[in-house]
Amino acid sequence: MATKSKTAKKTKPKATAAKKKPVATKSTAAKVKDILAQLKSMGHESVRKLNIRNGAGDKQFGVKLGDIRTVAKKIKPNHALALALWETENLEAQLITTLLIKAKDLSEAEMEAMVKSVTVVQVAEWLHSYVLKDHADKESLRQKWMTTNHPMAARAGWRLTAGRVAKSPEGIDVVALLNRIEAEMASADPLVQWTMNSCLAEIGIHFAQHRQRAIAIGEKLGVYRDYPCSPGCTSPFAPIWIDYFVSRQG
User: Fold this and answer.
1) Cα–Cα distance between 189 and 161 in angstroms, integer?
2) Which of 102, 104, 127 is nearest to 115 (CA)?
3) pLDDT per residue over 77-98, tens digit each?
4) Which positions of the chain have pLDDT values less than 50?
């Protein structure tokens, strides 16, 4: 009996999918250049002059702080880019760095180098608030900086100590701090004097048993007694500062 021959099905070869072209990415240097150009376009002469009065040099554009935050929000966090912006020594670029960089990505040595390279107080404040206070080695750095002669590092040391006094005072020798403040604050470098005074105020606010001595030290030294304050702002003069925040404790 004749059998019907089976014919093999012909299959079309699958089309080879076209390879996607790699997306070209800008180099870090090009990104830095673009960001600096954007910042320059947002500058205000009045802000630039104010920055100069507050200690900034010529490496700045006079960009408002709110606008700096807006620019930073549009930048994808990138450690290499953040460091490259810092290295420009431009005021606004360094402020953006503090908003982009992660404390966990910095070694203790790198953190210390950044703190010591700061030249403008606004940058020091943002670096503390957004990076340093979250760094794993902040306590060892604090202890080291409390005995340093480097103004910015000492400023940071007293800033961290004020934070310890307010939030985690265990192990802090408050009497020894008061002794140092009484002996050193009047003649301290202005950069250090500000955070040393903050520490004095925090002691007076959070330690009832040391409050009268803290107020007495403030009165005796008179640091920031005549400091100009805008309406609605609290004076940095320690006795006024302490009284105001203690009254709010109920």
Assistant:
1) 17
2) 127
3) 889 999 999 999 999 999 999 9
4) 1-9, 15-16, 18-19, 21-24
What pLDDT is attached to residue 14? 53
Distance CA 171, CA 178 (A): 15
pLDDT of 52: 95
The position carrying tokens 């480097």 is 150
- Ordered by start, the domain boundaries in the chain are 28-136, 139-250
pTM of the model: 0.87
Structure tokens at 156: 């940071």
Residue of 204, 55, 39 lying closest to 125 (CA atoms): 55
Residue linked to tokens 């007694």: 225
**Cβ atoms 180, 220 nearer than 8 A:** no
